[in-house]
Automatic annotation (TrEMBL):
InterPro entries: TPR-like_helical_dom_sf, TPR_2, TPR_rpt. Coiled coil: none annotated. It holds the Pfam family TPR_11. SMART domains: TPR (SM00028). Keywords: Repeat, TPR repeat. TPR repeats lie at residues 409-442, 443-476, 551-584. This is Tetratricopeptide repeat protein.
Amino acid sequence: MLSLFDFYTLHQFIADEAQRSLSLPATVYFARLDADGSLHALQLHSTDQDEVPFSELPHQVLKPHLSEDKIIIPLTLPSEEHIALVITDVDPELLKKMSPQWLQKTGEDLLSILELSCLQYKDTNLDLYNSHAAKAFIQCTKFEEPVFFLLINTVFYRRSAIGNLQKLRETADLLQVLTKSPCFTFGYGVFGVALALENREQALRQTRYLQQQLKREGLHKVQVSFAKLGSDHSKYENSLFEKIWQALTVAEQRGPFGFCDVEILQNRPDHPFKLDNPTLSARLAQRWRALSAFSLVLISRQAGTEEPFTGPAEANSIALPQHLGEYIGEDDNLTFVLIPGSDPEEVRLQVDAIRDRYQELYNNGLSLTIGVASWPCLDFTKHDVPGNCLKALLHSSYLGAGTTVFFDHISLNISGDVFFDEGDYRTAIREYRRGLRLHPNDINLMNSLGVALIECGQKRRAAECFQNVLQKDPANHMALINFGHVQQTLGRKDLALQSFELAYQGLETTSFAPQDLLIPLGKLYAECGAHKKAQAVLEQWQACPGSENEYLLYRLLGQSYFENGRHEDAKSACQKALQLFPHDSVSLSTLGLLYVESGEGDSLGLDLCQKALELDNQNPDHWYRLARALLCLMNETEALSAVKRCLQLQRYHMEGRLLLSRIYLHMKKSRLAEQAAVKVLEAATATVSQKHRAQQIITESA
């Protein structure tokens, strides 16, 4: 059905289609209509604003009317939003022949035509715009506000084709809920999102947020490229649409959760560790060609109004004594000095003398910050040395103006963080490893390397990094959390729980615990049957700012309250989760079982359980809850069929096996009930509570 998003996303197509359909010698466009009758251009940030109901609009605004030289026809969209059809440049004689009734009917007929016409730009299976709409949106829209376009590649693994389709639909629904913006599908798990964001920093935050949310839902890869849309994107030699796809290829190369900004890809010379001065680079290469060892000094002037020195006369005026080194030149506010040799003590003395020389030369209160890098160093080439000097200067920015920094392992940690923040995880890993070669016992570098390895899917190597940290600092909070995450993904739940608990115990009672600790800890407690502990952890998350918008929190709370016998709280939590994410199949299934077991609506409860399976019939928990609901209604045959389907999907679903035993008891099949219960007793993954219940069933079946 037509919505405000359609009129924003497909505005050029809709305007052209309206012009053709009306066949009027006039100009036609659409606008938002406020309660005072004023018109406003459709913009992305305005499409999700609260609409004023038509019933609350003044009577004169509700009817087609003439405002200045415009005919304004208020229209109600099928989405129950409202918009105004605006017709201008109309012949006054023709205007006299247009009755309000004719105008109203014309507008309503036009909506029907537009709804059918817009179908060519939509994927009706996923209820998203298709690739044709995305291309038209990017290439034809004149953006009057900052808008970023994100291209998202998602990868997940399901056993069947229907499972893949269901997960694809769930991902599409979730993206719409998380972004509340126009979403597009390109097929094969690739999506696009248009977001009203002010700057690149906001785009980076939104990218990481979406990756985190989708990762929580079990996606194995979420790779993102993004670009700012605006009047300046014509500067690219090819279309921006193609550039976004090229950036996605780079993001895929960076790891399972890599991302890439088109702007960074287009402007590589602007990278903070690149010397973008060919003349100066050539001069340096000529000077160091015959040197077997050298050091490069970069002097940054932090204040003042002096212009860079460029001419020979200026070079002579700041010439250095030969024993101090050779002045190479200037680039912006940077002065380059080359020192033959790389002996640390000698270079340090020379750098101190160079500082004194230039401080005297710039006798105007300038603060000089110096970065120094030497060669040979690790596996760096001579041409890498200017970049290493720039890394040292960035390092010095954390220490304050007027400092001197010699390129070291901390410089590499900082430069690695820069690449990590850009989504270039493989380059970040290289920087962290180089830093560890210089300082093998640095805990920060080990932690950083482990996190980057996780982003590249190298979980076992990441675990080794965190283990090394914990050997040196057993209470290191971030290492405990990260080690727990790795062990959880490797299926080692006991080790993961132990690590998370240690991190949780180390928190100050007055501080808010991070979500990346509370979520997995709460889940593991629930899986281990420690539902009271799970509830306490989740309620702590609920107390954190911003948690009221987390559908996952209320989904997990609903399950914990259910297991702890707080059924009313469980219903409220599930309903809250569904308000935030209407297609949350887990909350639908849980709420359905609650309705049945509390006797508040058997038919409604079963409908909700079935609805959950329509959304995702590959989730064994959904089949388990349906079986449990059916058994509650004494429908043993269908309950047996449902629980068997649960166990087909997850052979060691312990709650499913216990339910299977209970169903057999109801059906007077004691031997089968005992056999199913024995399998629970023999299972290494069964909890103490589950084994206790299995023993009770065996006793009852005797």
